[in-house]
Automatic annotation (TrEMBL), chain A:
Name of the protein this chain belongs to: Exosome complex component RRP4
Keyword ATP-binding attached: no
Entry keywords, A to Z: Cytoplasm, Exosome, Nucleus, Phosphoprotein, RNA-binding, rRNA processing
UniProt family annotation: Belongs to the RRP4 family.
Domain RRP4 S1 residue range list: 74-146
Localization annotation: Cytoplasm; Nucleus, Nucleolus
Protein origin, superkingdom: Eukaryota
All copies of domain Exosome complex component N-terminal, residue ranges: 25-62
Entry GO MF terms: RNA binding
UniProt-listed Pfam families: ECR1_N, KH_6, S1_RRP4
Quaternary assembly: Component of the RNA exosome core complex (Exo-9), composed of EXOSC1, EXOSC2, EXOSC3, EXOSC4, EXOSC5, EXOSC6, EXOSC7, EXOSC8 and EXOSC9; within the complex interacts with EXOSC4 and EXOSC7. The catalytically inactive RNA exosome core complex (Exo-9) associates with the catalytic subunit EXOSC10/RRP6. Exo-9 may associate with DIS3 to form the nucleolar exosome complex, or DIS3L to form the cytoplasmic exosome complex. Exo-9 is formed by a hexameric base ring consisting of the heterodimers EXOSC4-EXOSC9, EXOSC5-EXOSC8 and EXOSC6-EXOSC7, and a cap ring consisting of EXOSC1, EXOSC2 and EXOSC3.
InterPro entries: Exosome_cplx_N_dom, Exosome_RNA_bind1/RRP40/RRP4, KH_dom_type_1, KH_dom_type_1_sf, NA-bd_OB-fold, S1_RRP4
Biological-process GO terms, alphabetical: CUT catabolic process; exonucleolytic trimming to generate mature 3'-end of 5.8S rRNA from tricistronic rRNA transcript (SSU-rRNA, 5.8S rRNA, LSU-rRNA); nuclear polyadenylation-dependent rRNA catabolic process; poly(A)-dependent snoRNA 3'-end processing; TRAMP-dependent tRNA surveillance pathway; U4 snRNA 3'-end processing
TrEMBL record, chain B:
Biological processes per GO annotation: exonucleolytic trimming to generate mature 3'-end of 5.8S rRNA from tricistronic rRNA transcript (SSU-rRNA, 5.8S rRNA, LSU-rRNA); nuclear mRNA surveillance; nuclear polyadenylation-dependent rRNA catabolic process; rRNA catabolic process; TRAMP-dependent tRNA surveillance pathway; U1 snRNA 3'-end processing; U4 snRNA 3'-end processing; U5 snRNA 3'-end processing
GO molecular function per UniProt: mRNA 3'-UTR AU-rich region binding
Family indicated by similarity: Belongs to the RNase PH family.
Keyword Protein transport: no
InterPro entries with a match to the protein in the record: ExoRNase_PH_dom1 (IPR001247), ExoRNase_PH_dom2 (IPR015847), ExoRNase_PH_dom2_sf (IPR036345), Exosome_comp_Rrp42_subfam (IPR050590), PNPase/RNase_PH_dom_sf (IPR027408), Ribosomal_Su5_D2-typ_SF (IPR020568)
Chief place of localization: cytoplasm
Subcellular location: Cytoplasm; Nucleus, Nucleolus
UniProt name for this protein: Ribosomal RNA-processing protein 42
Keywords: Cytoplasm, Exosome
GO cellular component: cytoplasmic exosome (RNase complex); nuclear exosome (RNase complex); nucleolus
Keyword Cytoplasm: yes
Domain Exoribonuclease phosphorolytic as annotated: residue spans: 32-166, 196-260
Length: 232, 319
């Protein structure tokens, strides 16, 4: 048993921790530049001659355009991103997925793989069985297929590496901490699979091919699993 | 309550982990997450505190006002609780959505403080049957990361520790009673918080119980037992929440755990508050000696009288 009460302590400077001076970091109200030759982008505003940050983040400059990339933000999706999300609603031929973006994303029935990998048009029967595939509260990994004009995302899971997530834990971090890179599926030598969602959702689970050797009561449940739940 | 949405797999993962005494964040069943307490942050209250426990964020303000005592208890002051669940914490709380939870939290606090061991209400009495101090305790839930009951009770205790009640002088003038409330911010007294209870929530998950459940764990728990433990390590209130059933045997186990956790919580909180007081006193001493030197230099006074200095400092809003 442990109880740990603390007083709010003084934060250490990042440079002291990392051993190098960080890039241009600003907080709201900081003056970025007093040069009038620049254009204001996202996260900035002009007051008189000064360009001032309106969010806390890193200053980004492209030619004459200055933006501030905020640390704490909702997820802005791009096509091809790997995301981890949670089903919040089952609707007409689509699922609503919570992906920490400003609007809920959609996963169309036509953009999931049918159980057994059948390739055919989705019938009305499939539509009735949608809740068998994915129910409210389920976690999935998916890829961003397209971005609609209002910024909401359309996802797809048409690859064996995507789909429903089973035993494991979800960790949420700010999306700005996850870099877009070549692979977001990591198999660690210690026997864990990590999915780094671009939306800041990180999924950690036991390695896939070792599922059968799980301990205790978890084994029989895996064997007794309903068929559709297997990669739906 | 604003329950987290979980898939069935996550549920079994959490329940399985609890059964093996190993929770998602690496704690054992009886471990508490660390929490940060800040006191004296709202300037227009008599006492205030803010508590952060993981993502849970609670702000408490105490306002001492003069009122009339209840007819049944003419020799005592009284406390009133109000808890507001801000829509910032969860969209569910928007409009009147947080009212139900807020009333429940306030009632739980009221029940714990109702016991005579909690706080010395007689010390809040000014004129028996006529005037007494009323403590209005308002709490706001700014963010909800689970374990609201415990964190609110801890924050209230910290705020009461920070509360300063001005001294009142009663004078009788030809039968008329006059109350004079001191303006001097230093002419005040503080409450004795050593015996004030904290609430420990025991959440039943699977066949075991855990303390300080996170939001995800709360979603897996069907029944909770709230046990209020006072400074003498005695139980002064108990309540069951949730629609699940509790095994009579496990209730005794839970109470035992709650007592030991409550004892550690009380001790930890009081320690940290004491430390904060010491720190403040140190800063104050430094400031006072600094200003004493300044004033002495400026006005060429050799022996500045202690009370005169205090008077200057009190009214110049320096300390």
């Amino acid at each position: 048993m442990s109880v740990d009460a603390r007083l709010p302590t003084k934060r250490k400077r990042i440079s002291a921790l990392a051993g190098f001076e960080p890039r241009h970091i600003v907080s709201p109200g900081d003056v970025i530049t007093e040069d009038t030759g620049y254009m204001r982008g996202h996260g900035t505003y002009v007051d008189g001659d000064k360009l001032i940050a309106s969010v806390a983040g890193i200053v980004d400059r492209v030619n004459k355009l200055i933006c501030v990339r905020p640390f704490k933000t909702r997820y802005n999706g791009e096509v091809g991103d790997v995301v981890v999300g949670r089903i919040t609603e089952v609707g007409q031929r689509r699922w609503k997925v919570e992906t920490f973006s400003r609007l809920d994303s959609v996963l169309l029935l036509s953009s999931v793989n049918l159980p057994g990998g059948e390739l055919r048009r989705r019938s009305a029967e499939d539509e009735l069985k949608m809740r068998h595939f994915l129910a409210e509260g389920d976690l999935i990994s998916a890829e961003v297929q397209s971005v609609y004009s209002d910024g909401s995302l359309s996802l797809h899971t048409r690859s064996l590496k995507y789909g429903k997530l089973k035993e494991g834990t979800l960790i949420q971090v700010p999306p700005s901490l996850v870099k877009r890179c070549k692979t977001h599926f990591l198999h660690l030598p210690c026997g864990a699979t990590v999915i780094l969602g671009n939306n800041g959702y990180v999924w950690i689970s036991p390695l896939d091919n070792e599922e059968a050797t799980l301990t205790d009561g978890q084994t029989d449940r895996l064997i007794n699993d309903d068929a559709p739940q297997n990669r739906f | 309550m604003a329950d987290a949405m979980l898939s069935s797999f996550e549920r079994t993962f959490i329940v399985g982990g609890v059964e093996q005494d190993f929770r998602c964040d690496g704690r054992s069943c009886q471990d508490y997450r660390h929490f940060e307490v800040e006191t004296g942050i709202v300037s227009n209250t008599s006492g205030s505190a803010r508590l952060r426990l993981s993502k849970t964020d609670i702000l408490v303000g105490v306002k001492a006002e003069i009122g009339e005592p209840h007819l049944q208890k003419p020799n005592q002051g009284y406390i009133e609780f109000f808890v507001d669940c801000s829509a910032n914490a969860s969209p569910e709380f928007e409009g009147r959505g947080g009212e139900e939870l807020g009333t429940m939290l306030a009632k739980t606090l009221g029940r714990a403080y109702n016991h005579k061991s909690a706080i010395d209400l007689a010390s809040l009495c000014i004129l028996p049957g006529k005037q007494c101090w009323v403590l209005y305790i308002d709490a706001v839930v700014l963010e909800c990361g689970g374990n609201l009951f415990d964190s609110i009770s801890l924050a209230v205790k910290a705020a009461l520790h920070n509360t300063r009640i001005p001294n009142v002088t009663v004078s009788t003038d030809e039968g008329d009673v006059e109350l004079e409330i001191s303006d001097d911010p230093h002419d005040c007294r503080r409450l004795d918080v050593s015996s004030i209870p904290v609430t420990v929530t025991m959440s039943k998950i699977g066949h075991r119980h855990v303390v300080d459940a996170s939001r995800q764990e709360e979603a897996c728990s069907l029944a909770q037992l709230l046990v209020s433990v006072n400074g003498n390590n005695n139980i002064c209130a108990m309540q069951k929440v949730g629609h699940g059933a509790l095994d009579p045997d496990s209730i005794f186990e839970m109470i035992e755990t709650a007592r030991s956790v409550g004892k550690a919580l009380n001790k930890g909180l009081l320690n940290i508050l004491k430390k904060k007081n010491q720190k403040q006193a140190k800063i104050k001493r430094k400031l006072v000696s600094y200003y004493r030197r300044k004033i002495q230099q400026k006005y060429q006074i050799k022996n500045l009288h202690r009370f005169f200095l205090r008077f200057i400092l009190a009214y110049s809003n320096i300390v």
